[in-house]
UniProtKB/TrEMBL annotation:
Keywords: DNA-binding. Residues 43-103 form the HTH tetR-type domain. GO terms for molecular function: DNA-binding transcription factor activity; transcription cis-regulatory region binding. It comes from the Bacteria. It comes from Cupriavidus necator (strain ATCC 43291 / DSM 13513 / CCUG 52238 / LMG 8453 / N-1) (Ralstonia eutropha). Residues 16-38 are annotated as: Disordered. It holds the Pfam family TetR_N. This is Transcriptional regulator TetR/AcrR family. SUPFAM superfamilies: Homeodomain-like. InterPro entries: Homeodomain-like_sf, HTH-type_TetR-like_transc_reg, HTH_TetR. Residues 66-85 bind DNA.
Length: 237
């Protein structure tokens, strides 16, 4: 899985956006996480920091987020936070990557490795995860505020990388459906991911002006089921 934790100054989630007149300005080392947690205690620390980061952001807005405030909220020293995140942009970068990896892991566990489930059940679950149907219950936050921050922490190549990861996760999930009418080709998988992930992002930008969450998820599930049902597709004129 591609990583954002690098020694080189390559841009990624967590890098400052180039100024309008300086599109080639290199990213600063402070704008991305320094390392990944490798041991159980380190994972606990980083997850607690992420939880505190989200609470402060939702309560006080981006201006209220500081490394000191997050460290105090999480119950750790500022030095402990700085071992991983040298700035709040780096913290946002790490959280976005955490969100993506959580989604990928859930697709693998709840869809690809699921036993004794027909393809329709698997696809409904796959789409529900991609739509963020139960993100609140799992503690994941992906909202319009995060999308608004993306110009400061991401470049097009990083969006492409995430898209490729989602496409591969969907491909594996669909390949795990032995009763699927026909295995979809790469173009169809990409189209479905674009339809669901793109719709999720745009729906957030509408901020409540579209379908209610449950209805929207149900419609996206129906769309994907129809696209993957060869008989239903062939029946169309």
């Amino acid at each position: 899985m591609p990583r954002i934790y690098r020694r080189a100054n390559a841009a990624g989630f967590g890098n400052e956006a180039p100024a309008a007149g300086d599109l080639k300005r290199p990213a600063t080392p402070r704008s991305k996480p320094l390392k990944r947690p490798s041991q159980q205690r380190a994972h606990f620390t980083v997850n607690a920091i992420y939880d505190a980061f989200v609470r402060i952001w939702r309560r006080d807005g981006w201006d209220g987020v500081t490394t000191r405030a997050v460290a105090l909220e999480a119950g750790f020293s500022v030095g402990a936070l700085y071992e991983y995140f040298p700035s709040k942009e780096a913290l946002a970068s790490g959280y976005v990557r955490h969100m993506v990896e959580t989604m990928l892991a859930r697709i693998d566990t709840e869809v690809t490795q699921r036993k004794n489930a027909d393809w329709r059940t698997r696809v409904r679950r796959l789409v529900a995860i991609a739509c963020g149907a139960d993100d609140e219950a799992t503690g994941i936050v992906f909202d319009a505020d995060i999308i608004g921050l993306e110009p400061r922490i991401a470049e097009p190549k990083h969006h492409r990388r995430v898209f490729e990861e989602f496409c591969e996760a969907w491909r594996r999930a669909l390949c795990a459906c032995p009763d699927l009418p026909t295995a979809p080709d790469a173009a169809k998988v990409q189209a479905l991911v674009l339809a669901v992930w793109g719709a999720r992002r745009y729906r957030l930008l509408l901020q409540g002006a579209a379908l209610q969450p449950a209805q929207w998820v149900a419609e996206m599930q129906a769309l994907c089921l129809a696209a993957l049902d060869e008989k239903a597709t062939d029946a169309q004129p």
